[in-house]
# Entry
Amino acid sequence: MMLSRRLILLTLAALPAACASRNPTLYVLGTEPGATRTGAPRIVQVRPIAVAHYLERSQIVRSSEGYRMDVLSNEWWGEPLDTMISRILVQELNQRLPGSSVYGESGAISTPPDATVEIDLQRFDLDRSGSLLLTAQAAVDGKTQSSRPITLTVRPVDGTTTAIVAAMSIATGQLADIVAGMLAGR
# Structure
């Protein structure tokens, strides 16, 4: 009787550990180097990136094709997507515009900018063919004002989450190339 009571208690104690789900795998975008440009304003502020609401979640959205959203339930972003894209874009623009100082509006710097960058990210997931699709509107207000739609397609090397995030990083680098060109007046 004593042995079976002890066995029941040990079994009950082990149940929560057996039912616990594994921790999510966290991912972050990487920075991509790009060609440097001259002629951009000296101080550039990147305003907070507007991200389509369907992307505002911890889980990585794999695709939004066919009236259905495919979310990677246990593969999450390591930080909010809008914050991460802003941070990466600031780093990439600083690399591409060596004569400029680029900072994010949500950071601690409050120097009046000579130019501002606004990005409205409308899509950032896989299309029907399995390619990453980045669709956005970009606006630059500086020496001149310009805005333009941007559509970028990058094919992941395979279907793994790591390959998808790598393709997203490449697309974000291409976005930085376009914005750097807009800032430099080209």
Q: What stands out?
A: The longest strand covers residues 115-126. The radius of gyration is 22 Å. The helical segments are 2-19, 81-96, 161-183.
